[in-house]
UniProtKB/TrEMBL annotation:
Keywords: Heme, Iron, Membrane, Metal-binding, Monooxygenase, Oxidoreductase, Transmembrane, Transmembrane helix. InterPro entries: Cyt_P450 (IPR001128), Cyt_P450_CS (IPR017972), Cyt_P450_E_grp-I (IPR002401), Cyt_P450_sf (IPR036396), Cytochrome_P450_Monooxygen (IPR050665). It comes from Camellia sinensis. Belongs to the cytochrome P450 family. Heme binds at residue 438. This is Cytochrome P450. Its cofactor is heme. It comes from the Eukaryota. It is found in: Membrane. Pfam families: p450. One of its GO terms (molecular function) is monooxygenase activity. The chain crosses the membrane at residues 6-29. One of its GO terms (cellular component) is membrane.
Length: 492
C-alpha cells in the first residue's frame, strides 16, 4: 500500500514538475528566446511586463478624444496617429521596425517600405494568418478563405478567386446598377419630400446597397429573410466580440445560430457554384463540406459588404468637401448613358479619386501575418511563431514615398497609375499584398465606381455642417459618427 502511495506520489510529482517546466518554457523561456533573436538583429522595442507583455501600455494609451479630428475647419486625413497613438509613439522612439509583445506573443511591427515590399513579394505558405486572429474570428467566420492557411486555404482560393476575375465581374454590373438605382430612387423621393434639399445619412444607405449587391451575386437574390437575419447576426456577433466574456457566455446561442445558418444555406441554390466546388475539394465528407459552404458564404459576404460600403462613404465625404473634384469626376460622364464595365474602366478621374480615398481611409489598418517557420525578409530573420504586422496608414503617409503633402487629398497623384504615385508601389496596400491579396478587388472597384457614377450624375452634395470627423476602428475603419450629406438634384 505504502509502495503504491509512493509510486502515485512520484508520478504526480513528475507530472507537476513537467507541467511547471512546460509553463516556464511556454511563458518565459520561449518569448525571451524569440525576443533576443529579434533584438540581436538590432530590432528595438518597449520592455514587456511579465506575462502581460505590452498589453498594459495599450490600456494606458487609449485613443484620445477624437470626436472632432479637424484642423483649420477641415477633416484631418492623418488620423491614424490619434486612433492608434501608441504605435505612433513607439515609431517615434524605435523607428520603422520594432518588436512588442501582446501577452507572451511577440510581434514585429513594420512601417519600413523596403521591408513591406520584401514581405509582399513572399509567396511562401509559411507566412500565414495569425493564430490568435483565426481563433478570435472563428465564432463569426468559421474556417473559410479569410481565416485559413496552407493547402486548405490554397484549394479555396483557387476555386473562389477566379469567380472575381475581370471577365466574370463585368457581367455583374447589372446587379450593381439595379441596386444603385434603388438607392437613388429613395434619395430622390426624400429630396422631393423635403422641397429640393435633403440631409441624408449616406453610410447606412450604402451598407444596404452593398448588401444587396453581394447577396444577389452570391445567392441570386437579396430579399430573403436569411440575408436580413445574417446581417443582424453579424451585428450582434461583432458587438459581442468586443467583449470577450460575452462571447464565452453566449457560446450556446452562437451554436444554435450556426445550426440554423447551416440549414438555411444548404437549402439554397447558391449562385456561386465556386463556393460549393471549393468546399467539395477541400473538406472531407458531407458534413465538413456543408460547414465550409456556410463558412465561405459568411466570409465572402462579410468581405464584400463592409469595406466596399465604407470606402464609398469615405469617398463621398471627400468629394463633398472638395467640390472641384466632384465637378471633375462628374464631367467624365456628362451625356453618357448608364455606365458599363468598359466605360467605367475609362473613367480615370473617378478611379484616381477612389484610389486616393483608399490611400487616406484604407478599411484595414494592418496586414497581419504569422511566421509558421523561421523566415527571412531582406536582412531580417524572423523566427517561427512571431506576428508580422505591416502598418498600412504610416506607409500610405510616408513623405519619402508620396512627396511632401501625404496628408492632402490629391487624386492627381494617381493620374498616371500607382507606379508613378508611390515610389515603392508595394507600399500602397489598401487591398493587402502577397498571395492573400483581396480576391474581390476588381469587383469592389467596379461596384464603388457604379454607385459613385450614378450618384454624381444625379446629385450635387455638400457635407452636413454637423458632421463630426472621427475615424474609429470597429473591425474596419469607419466614420464614427456617420456621414450625412446635404443633397440636391442636379438640374439638367
Ligand atoms: C474597397 C473594398 C475592399 C477592400 C479595401 C478590401 C481589402 C481586403 C484586404 C486588405 C484583404 C486582406 C488581404 C491580406 O490579408 O493580405 C482582403 C481579403 C479578401 N477580400 Fe477584400 N476588400 C474589399 C472588397 C472585397 C469584395 C467586394 C470581395 C468579394 C466580393 C472581397 C473578397 C475578399 C476575399 C475573399 C479575401 C480573402 C483573400 C485570401 O485570403 O485569399 N473583398 N480584402
Amino acid at each position: 500500500m505504502e509502495l503504491l502511495f509512493k509510486s502515485a506520489f512520484s508520478v504526480g510529482l513528475l507530472f507537476l514538475t513537467s507541467f511547471i517546466l512546460y509553463l516556464f518554457n511556454r511563458f518565459w523561456v520561449r518569448p525571451q528566446r524569440l525576443r533576443s533573436k529579434l533584438r540581436t538583429q538590432g530590432l528595438r522595442g518597449p520592455s514587456p511586463s511579465f506575462l502581460l507583455g505590452n498589453t498594459p501600455d495599450f490600456i494606458r494609451f487609449q485613443p484620445k478624444d477624437i470626436k472632432a479630428l479637424t484642423q483649420d475647419g477641415e477633416a484631418t486625413h492623418d488620423w491614424a496617429r490619434f486612433t492608434f497613438p501608441l504605435f505612433d509613439h513607439w515609431t517615434k522612439q524605435y523607428g520603422q521596425r520594432y518588436n512588442f509583445a501582446l501577452g507572451t506573443y511577440q510581434v514585429v511591427y513594420i512601417t519600413d517600405p523596403h521591408l513591406a515590399k520584401e514581405i509582399s513579394l513572399s509567396t511562401s505558405l509559411k507566412l500565414g494568418k495569425p493564430f490568435f486572429l483565426q481563433k478570435n474570428s472563428e465564432t463569426l467566420l468559421g474556417k473559410g478563405i479569410l481565416t485559413s492557411d496552407g493547402e486548405f486555404w490554397t484549394h479555396q482560393r483557387k476555386t473562389i478567386a477566379p469567380e472575381f476575375y475581370a471577365d466574370k465581374v463585368k457581367n455583374l454590373v447589372h446587379i450593381m446598377l439595379d441596386s444603385a438605382n434603388k438607392l437613388i430612387n429613395t434619395w430622390e423621393t426624400e429630396i422631393e419630400k423635403q422641397s429640393g434639399t435633403a440631409n441624408i445619412k449616406v453610410d447606412e444607405d450604402l451598407q444596404s446597397f452593398a448588401s444587396i449587391v453581394i447577396s444577389e451575386t452570391l445567392f441570386g437574390h437579396s430579399n430573403s429573410k436569411v440575408i436580413n437575419e445574417l446581417q443582424s447576426r453579424f451585428k450582434r456577433l461583432e458587438r459581442a466580440m468586443k467583449t470577450p466574456l460575452l462571447v464565452h457566455s453566449n457560446q450556446e446561442q452562437f451554436r444554435e445560430m450556426e445550426i440554423e445558418e447551416r440549414d438555411t444555406f444548404t437549402d439554397y441554390e447558391l449562385y456561386y457554384k465556386a463556393i460549393i466546388n471549393g468546399a467539395k475539394m477541400s473538406a472531407p465528407g458531407l458534413a465538413a463540406a456543408e460547414q465550409l459552404i456556410v463558412d465561405n458564404c459568411k466570409n465572402v459576404y462579410l468581405a464584400g459588404l463592409e469595406s466596399t460600403a465604407n470606402t464609398a462613404a469615405w469617398t463621398l465625404m471627400l468629394l463633398a468637401t472638395h467640390p472641384e473634384w466632384q465637378d471633375r469626376a462628374r464631367a467624365e460622364f456628362v451625356g453618357e448613358s448608364l455606365p458599363d464595365a468598359t466605360m467605367l474602366g475609362k473613367m480615370k478621374v473617378l478611379t484616381s479619386v477612389i484610389q486616393e480615398s483608399l490611400r487616406l481611409y484604407p478599411p484595414g489598418p494592418f496586414i497581419a501575418r504569422e511566421t509558421l517557420e523561421d523566415m527571412k525578409f531582406g536582412d531580417l530573420e524572423i523566427p517561427k511563431g512571431v506576428g508580422v504586422w505591416v502598418a498600412v496608414m504610416p506607409l500610405h503617409h510616408d513623405p519619402e514615398l508620396w512627396g511632401p503633402d501625404p496628408s492632402k487629398f490629391n487624386p492627381d497623384r494617381f493620374a498616371n497609375g500607382i507606379g508613378s504615385a508611390c515610389k515603392i508601389p508595394q507600399a500602397y496596400i489598401p487591398f493587402g499584398n502577397g498571395p492573400h491579396i483581396c480576391a474581390g478587388q476588381l469587383f469592389a472597384m467596379l461596384e464603388i465606381k457604379v454607385v459613385l457614377a450614378i450618384i454624381l450624375s444625379k446629385f450635387s452634395f455638400s457635407l452636413d455642417a454637423n458632421y463630426v470627423h472621427s475615424p474609429v476602428m470597429e473591425n474596419i475603419i469607419r466614420p464614427g459618427h456617420g456621414v450625412n450629406l446635404i443633397m440636391q438634384k442636379l438640374t439638367k
